[in-house]
Amino acid sequence: MRNLREARNRIRAFLRKEPHDAELQAEIAAHLEMAVDENLRRGFSPHEARRQALIRFGHVDTAKFKQREARGLMQLDIFLQDLRYTLRSLGRDRGFTLVAVLILALGIGANVAVFSVVNTLLLRPLPFPNSQQLVWIAPPPTKCGISCATYSSDGYDTFRAGTHSFQDVTGYFAFDTINNLSLTMGAGAPIQATSIEVIANFFQLLGVQPAMGRAFNLDDARDGAAPVVLLSDAWWRSRFNADPNIVGKAYDMNGHLTTIIGVLPPSFDFGAFFSPGTKIDALTPLNLNATRNEGNIVTFIGRLKPGVTLAQAQQDAAIVAPRLCNNAKVPESCGNYQAVPVPLKSYISGKLRRSLVVLWSAVGGILLIACVNLSNLLLARAAARSKEFAMRSALGATRSRIVRQLLIESLLLSGAGAIGGLILAAALLGWLGHQGSIALPMLNVLHIDAVALGWTVLIAVFAAIFFGLVPGLRMASGNLQETLKDSGPGSGMGRKHERLRATLVVTEVALACVLLVGAGLLLRSFLKVLDVDLGFEPQHAATVMVDYSYHAKSREDALQQQTHIFQRVIARVSAIPGIQAAGIADFLPLSQNRSWGLPFPKGVKPPAGMSGPLVYVITPGYMRAMGTSIRGRDFQWDDGPTSTNVVLINKSYERFLNQFANWPDGSAVGHILADDGGQDVLVAGVVEDVHEEGTEGDTGWQIYYPVSQQFPNAAQLVIRTALPPASMATSVLTTLRELNPKQPMAEFRSIQTLVDHANSPRRFFMVLVASFAALGLALAALGIYGVISYSVTQRTQEIGLRMALGASMAQVQRSVLARTLRLAVIGIVLGGIASLAVSRAISSLLFHTAPGDPIALLVPVFLIGTVALLAGYLPARRAASVNPTIALRNN
Amino acid sequence: MGDSKLDLLQGTLDLMVLQTLAAMGKQHGYGIARRIEQVSGDEILLNQGTIYASLVRLQQREWIDAEWGTSDNNRRAKYYSITPSGRRQLARDAAYWQRLTSVMGRMLAMPAEESVR
């Protein structure tokens, strides 16, 4: 109570300094006058009366100081005084201030941004309640992709009932294609969107509450249930104008009146977790009965019971998995399953761990370089100010006051740098959050959280203070006398500083060298990835989803009808001027895939436990549209439902089958395979291996069926054109709409975007590391320039003397350049050695690039050498233009 | 100087000022300083100037009030007076000092004694 009142009064007094000081002044004056009056009355002479009064009063300024101390906030006063002084001196040195703040802002900004990414993807738990209990359940990784990571409806039921370690198991339908939902609102053209079918308990298991309405329940997934849908927050905002009364409204989706039962919270974006880089607009309940005969269709996600360890769950799953059946009614389909629970988080972001660690190290390097640079700048500044400090301490400033002022200066710089860095990081993260096409998980939930912010700013500020204060302390501790005398060149302090600064520059160059080599290796890898023969030609091709429907009386009728529809579409589209080829497939490379069984040479028993090739259902012309070459023949429209069943297989699968069949000349063309169902299929042709799962890595086995003999999951029209693919969008879509008024205004995507999407994580990391390396190089150049330029200024007289004694301009220039080069070479050698170690550490991130790749090693060396020479050249030219007469006179 | 005069213990000046104001009523800084000097018989080392830190401190704690007035010989001066809460504080501090000095007196009067056993 009393302290509170006193504090309030002190603050009030602090804010009203001038009136209080004036009052004190008047009071002291009155005091002295009264004392003089009294002394005069006592009979002193006027002069003595005044003297005695002053003696009794004591030191007037001390009294004032003590009064102010008792009255207001003295420490704050001094701090503000220092702050004003610092701001003034920084304001005078605007160039220095700007460069220092910019360097720090770049260093801190890059660090905060990358730390936020690392924190979201690696350090923080997934944004679900008790997320450590969540597991992804799949077989150990194999050649075939997601198709092998899925299970059948029967398998799901067996697994869920048979295991005891899980609170529950859920999953989603893994084969929903992009733009599989066509929404009709009013009279307009249908709108395409992407929806994913999830098992009814999906949201309960994850612990996600819809922001509005309700999640799915078991009734939604029963046979004959009324269709319902949950909207993503983004879709609700963009398509439904964030209608607050949306729940309960029904729209025509894929021809069924579908009720919107809820809107998901903004924090839950299905794509961000389970299909990075893909926008998922809606979620629908999966009816497991309806898909019972479709084979492997669902992924497994489980939630462990409290207290159950991962190892226990893995044991449990290992016991139950062999009991799973593809179809419980077909005994032969049982026993082929494996299931290994792994933490959901490591499934989502585990693969990125190494890349993120590298990225993190790279920004750490940048921060280090930034700090070294700042230290260098401050050292130069401190050297220039040594006389100022000496003068101040000669005038009575204490060491602590000078150090405190330096501390304030460093804090001010790093504070401004931190603010700049945060703005930079926020901008960077905002930009990243909207990069929907980068196939990295959880980018949309990136933000600067308190931990990332606090931690990184703390480190940065500490580093800045440390690096800022050290040169300051060195300055302040210097011998006063020596500093005041030290005006000539070549004196002790100057030399010592130069050595320190040279060491800092060498460090910078070495760090920049390491960063550049790392970036070079990643860039080489990226170029190698771009060079990979994908098995198809992504340029000049584009794809669009085709809507189709028919009512069929029998399987044969259905096959005939769909063949007829596709044939008409392709005929009409092919007739558009500029279209070179057109074809339809249900799945495209580098997106989704599935497998059915293991067709095998007739009469040979297939080995047990092998997963089959990836399956595509395509039309004639698709291979030509994709630019994939065929040996043998393509499908033809008259490969009908009743004629011989035909397939195309890829070269890898042919090679594999040939081990068992031993075809003459090793070619499968014209040979018969026995399909899973025991049907015979004729290999009509063998096609190039197409990269399916990713642009890197080996290709797996692939098999293609014609639409006239099998049912596709969807119809993705692929066109090849000599013109820019985007220019064909209107004419193709118009044609499709003429054929089918229900055709939605579909997204027209170039095939290249599929490839870009697959390469996006590598591109993302490469671009980031390369920009950090460029930043490092620029900072190192700045450092070299600073040191050399400073030393030239310091030695102006020495240079003048040497020129007066007969050194030529060229000689002076050469000596400065030689000094630069020496610093650069030492840095490069040290950096080179470090790079060798670093490149070995990142070798697992490289693609077809050896850690010791000579180009990736030599180019950075050459680059740094050139930049160093450039940075040294400017001061060297200045040195050479020194006029000896002026330089010598100027002492 | 120096050894012959008493250094003021921390806080004692504040107590002296309070007591002076309580005894004399309204008074200006010079008057308070002179009064303390007179009462102490010039035994304490007091720069009159230091009184102002004490006065402002007491004011901040709202134990004394201040207002400008005119002195006997027509000089403008700031007059201080003790507030009710200042009086309460004075009573507390005075009691504390009495106790402390009596205890100190007894302690220092303690006769020297041979150690036991």
Annotate the secondary structure layout:
The complex is a heterodimer of chains A (891) and B (117).
Chain A: H1 2-15, H2 17-41, H3 46-57, H4 60-71, H5 74-92, H6 94-123, E1 134-138, H7 153-162, E2 166-170, E3 181-184, E4 191-193, E5 195-198, H8 202-206, E6 212-213, E7 228-231, H9 233-239, E8 250-253, E9 256-263, H10 270-274, E10 282-285, E11 300-304, H11 310-320, E12 340-343, H12 344-349, H13 353-394, H14 399-433, H15 450-477, H16 480-485, H17 492-531, E13 541-545, H18 555-574, E14 579-585, E15 600-601, E16 614-618, H19 622-626, E17 630-632, E18 646-650, H20 651-661, E19 672-674, E20 680-687, E21 702-706, E22 716-721, H21 729-739, E23 749-750, H22 751-794, H23 796-804, H24 809-841, H25 854-880, H26 884-889
Parallel strand pairs in A: 5-10, 7-9, 16-21, 18-20
Antiparallel strand pairs in A: 1-11, 1-12, 2-11, 3-4, 3-8, 6-9, 7-10, 8-9, 13-22, 13-23, 14-22, 15-19, 17-20, 18-21, 19-20
Chain B: H1 12-24, E1 27-28, H2 29-39, H3 51-60, E2 64-70, E3 76-82, H4 84-109
Antiparallel strand pairs in B: 1-3, 2-3
